[in-house]
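lol forgot to send this yesterday, sorry. struct tokens for the thing we talked abt
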């Protein structure tokens, strides 16, 4: 049998709501069409793909990401005219881990990213795991009455004031004022049809959620709290214990994630890029 890139790839689903480990491929090499289609299909099916032993330079990381679509610029970097598409999450003794609550990246943009990609550069000897939640299963697990209630609702997304204050400290008034002016709060459907499969996902993002539009403040807060509660249920999660040079790619439309900060004060360094996405929508027949 002739060996091809595809014939060497092995995909093993995790014993969890989502996630699969992929082996037999060196992500420094370009993927041929068949291998790329296989990995895209696995990503659509399993939502998070884990690859061990992928020691990617920033350029190789970007080249890998670019096979999945146009790469996203960080909104602050683009206001500063930077073409940089790679960024780093660096936890040190002086700069503790951010420990953001559950989120899908940059959901406050009108077109949030489609995929996130992390490559672990330096990993502490313990702690610092990342957990992803399956927003398809979360929607499926709601009672028909609650599904009916949330379908068609819109959730307003916006960074917390602290984010803009931090940008102001680091980048000054002009950039911050433009960032705020160019990114007014955005409303996304609370139930989102997946852009590839059409499958409905509960598009929650506690980090950036303000309120559900059209409900009283109280009703919005209580409905959001009851939905957000489910994110902590391990039945909907996959948890990844990082090793150096792991690469993980995930679907931002059907997952939220959060990184634990229990490695503090030990050093952790991640290299990250994201692939651009489209405006979230909900279609009743999905
Ligand atoms: C994040 O987006 O919260 C970072 C994920 C990680 O560092 O594992």
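and heres what i got for the seq, position by position
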């Amino acid at each position: 049998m002739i060996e091809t890139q595809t014939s060497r790839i092995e995909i093993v689903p995790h014993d969890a709501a989502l996630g699969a480990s992929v082996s037999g491929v060196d992500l420094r090499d370009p993927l041929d069409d068949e291998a790329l289609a296989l990995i895209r299909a696995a990503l659509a099916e399993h939502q998070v793909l884990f690859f061990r032993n992928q020691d990617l330079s920033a350029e190789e990381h970007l080249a890998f990401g670019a096979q999945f679509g146009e790469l996203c610029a960080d909104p602050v970097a683009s206001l500063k005219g930077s073409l940089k598409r790679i960024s780093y999450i660096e936890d040190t003794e002086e700069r503790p881990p951010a420990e953001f609550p559950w989120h899908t990246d940059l959901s406050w943009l009108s077109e949030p990213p489609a995929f996130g990609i992390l490559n672990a550069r330096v990993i502490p000897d313990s702690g610092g795991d990342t957990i992803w939640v399956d927003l398809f299963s979360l929607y499926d697990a709601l009672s028909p009455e609650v599904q009916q209630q949330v379908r068609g609702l819109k959730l307003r997304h916006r960074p917390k004031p602290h984010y803009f204050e931090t940008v102001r400290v680091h980048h000054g008034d002009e950039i911050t004022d433009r960032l705020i002016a160019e990114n007014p709060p955005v409303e996304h459907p609370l139930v989102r049809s997946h852009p590839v499969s059409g499958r409905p996902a509960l598009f929650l993002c506690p980090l950036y959620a303000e309120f559900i539009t059209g409900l009283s403040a109280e009703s919005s807060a209580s409905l959001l709290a009851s939905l957000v509660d489910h994110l902590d249920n391990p039945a909907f999660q996959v948890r990844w214990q990082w090793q150096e040079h792991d690469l993980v790619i995930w679907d931002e439309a059907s997952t939220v994630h959060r990184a634990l900060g229990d490695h503090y004060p030990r050093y952790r360094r991640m290299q990250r890029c994201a692939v651009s996405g489209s405006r979230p929508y909900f279609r009743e027949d999905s």
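The longest helix spans residues 161-182. anyway ping me if u want another try
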